[in-house]
Write a structure and sequence with these properties.
single chain, two-stranded antiparallel sheet
Amino acid sequence: MKIAIISHALVQEVCQNRWKLLAEEYGHEVHLIVPKLWISTWFGNKTVFEANEVHNHNFHVHTLPTTSTSRWDRYFFLSFDAKLRSIKPDIIYIIHEESIWVHHQIYLYRKLWAPDAKIIFFSIEFI
């Protein structure tokens, strides 16, 4: 089973570890799609994350440039359609807040390049 997991939070290697374990322990082909560069400004602290490509057996981290490197709610992935077409996932798991722009991009390209993929959406947004 091929699983594509999409989130800007996964630029951190520590956040990637659970998905690497899923690939290693259960044999699923796991593809993380993350921004190549992300700037976090939580609580006034500025932290710059630069993700690295990883291709290790059935665990992959794909880094893509984005239209913004710090606006979690307003960014798109560049070359996302080509990446989704090459992965051809069975499941697309999205870890974002509901109002984020990249969701529209994911839904559009899923219809074109992975029409049979199931979408799972998870949000930690508080009201």
